[in-house]
Structure formats: structure tokens, C-alpha cells
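Per your request, structure below.
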């Protein structure tokens, strides 16, 4: 295994771009996605309870999603195939970056991931023909606490202005109309 995890803080407190260690040989490659001790050292949780996988076509935007308390969760997002423009929006009242966003290109060839703490909305736009993403979450999916904000209401400069969206994602409220249940001090 070449190297170790490295973490680059983004503009949003607690949100990190991770570079995952990968080794190559004649058989192919081997990538470490989660290492509990490294995550603890970085102040991140590795207590994941569910893992989801999505496959999306070019121009699809999924998001901006989150779960509300008491089922809110941190999320680790890894691109296994293709490339996406990954985005997070700070919904934590009292945060120095409240209602601000960050975007990171996740690329299966770059071995990077995005760690998103509780209180941030998450979404992505598919840049390649198809992309496969793996999501690790720290709480199970709770349909009654599953929520979102409109993809085009948070000031994100998406890679497309005519995305393919789900019916659900077309109905989320605008960020300006969202009464956030997240508090920065209790989330940190």
C-alpha cells in the first residue's frame, strides 16, 4: 500500500477531501477507503452504519440531500468509476460558513473522497458518461427525516444548467426558504 491517507480541509469546517492510499501491481489495484485510527486522528468519525451505491449518467444532478436530527449523519463519498462534481452546502446555523458551498471533483482515477460532517447538504453532478458513487453514512436511512434543498438555490456553479433530476429533487425548497435544524456549536 503506497502512502497513507491525507486530508485537505475544504472551505467548510469539518469537511475534508481525502486522498485514499492505493497500491498497484500486475493484477490491478487495491484501495483503502476507511481506516478507523486515521479517521480518529483527523477528528472524523468512522462509525458508518450503512453503505449505498449509485450509478448515474452524464448531466444527472442528485441532491442536495441530508437527514434531519436526530437521524442526521456524516457521510463519506467515494467515486468508484467515472468523475463527478461533488458539492456540499453548510446548513449549520452559527457556522462561519453558513449557507456557503464547496465543490470538489471526485475522480475514480485520482483516488479521492469527500468527508461531509453532519449539518451539510450533499449533491453531485455526473461529468463522465456514467459514474458510480459509494456513500458511507453514520446513521441508517430514516425516510421521515430524509430531506433536501433545491439544487439551484445554493449558489453552486454546476457543470450543467439543464440537469436530469428526480421528481423528488425538483420539489425541494430553496435554501432561502429552509429553516435549518442544524446548529454549528452542537455539530462540532
Amino acid at each position: 500500500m503506497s502512502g497513507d491517507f491525507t486530508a485537505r480541509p475544504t472551505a467548510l469546517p469539518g469537511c475534508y477531501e481525502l486522498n485514499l492510499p492505493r497500491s498497484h501491481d500486475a493484477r490491478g489495484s487495491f484501495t483503502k477507503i476507511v481506516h478507523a485510527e486515521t479517521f480518529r486522528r483527523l477528528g472524523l468519525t468512522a462509525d458508518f452504519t450503512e453503505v449505498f451505491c449509485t450509478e448515474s449518467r452524464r448531466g444527472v444532478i442528485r441532491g442536495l440531500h441530508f437527514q434531519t436530527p436526530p437521524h442526521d449523519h456524516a457521510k463519506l463519498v467515494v467515486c468508484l468509476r467515472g468523475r463527478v462534481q461533488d458539492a456540499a452546502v453548510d446548513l449549520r446555523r452559527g457556522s462561519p460558513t453558513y449557507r456557503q458551498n464547496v465543490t470538489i471533483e471526485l475522480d475514480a482515477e485520482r483516488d479521492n473522497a469527500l468527508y461531509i460532517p453532519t449539518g451539510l447538504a450533499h449533491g453531485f453532478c455526473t461529468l463522465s458518461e456514467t459514474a458510480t458513487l459509494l456513500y458511507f453514512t453514520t446513521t441508517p436511512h430514516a425516510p421521515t427525516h430524509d430531506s433536501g434543498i433545491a439544487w439551484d438555490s445554493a449558489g453552486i456553479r454546476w457543470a450543467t444548467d439543464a440537469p436530469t433530476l428526480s421528481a423528488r429533487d425538483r420539489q425541494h425548497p430553496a435554501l432561502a426558504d429552509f429553516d435549518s435544524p442544524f446548529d454549528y456549536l452542537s455539530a462540532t
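The longest strand covers residues 50-57.

Regards,
D.
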